# Entry
Amino acid sequence: MTRPLIAAAVAALAATALTAAPATAKTAKTQTIYGYAWADGSNHLRITPAKAKLVTQHGVRRYKLTSVPGAKERRVFTDGVRFRRITTACDLKETEGRIRQDRKGLGTTDCDALDLKFVLSLGPAPVKITITPSLTTVAEFLAVPTNPVTAYGQLTRVDDRTVLFKRSGRAAVKLRYTHLGFNRVTKSCSDRWTANVPNEEAGIGTKPCTATAFRNAIRHAGPVTVKVYYQPVSGHLWEVWEALGD
# Structure
């Protein structure tokens, strides 16, 4: 082969290597997310990345999760995922006092996407999500309990499972709920927000109602005054008290 032809061949190989390398690196990239996963339709979940620290308490490995300022919520496709549960069986609602975890505190019971859907129907689940080009793995773990918040403020509906809560001097926080305690000031659970109040000095609600009643009451209301009880790291809204006043 002549010298000009050899030079051309070397140049072509170099060009091929330069163009192929970034694609290979991109394909091999692995993403890892810790946080609380929420159901989002039949084949997706939503999760806001949190900082996770592995700790051992009484011989049990748990993760202490803390919120990351400015972290953006992620939507993850769940069809075909590998799901590893902390429970001893895939269909258990709770651990029932027995767990299966590896040295990193992650669940080891092999389950599938339908089992993940079942778990998310119960409420937010603390998980580690590992995303590769070929497989997404969702591993359940035990989270260190964190202090809930009780506060007064303004609540605005986002959708049938999500609200924004704003209290004076603080940024609004997004909260979600599955099963919810709702306490009304109205006479009936089916009344519009603060309509048909039997006692104008009631203050905050004492009549127990359901999450369905809450969805119906807030659906056509603007920002409403409430007292709430929620978990700030998971964004889990546990209870709402309808309140009178501005």
About this structure: Residues 1-27 have pLDDT under 50 and may be disordered. The two ends are 87 Å apart (CA to CA).
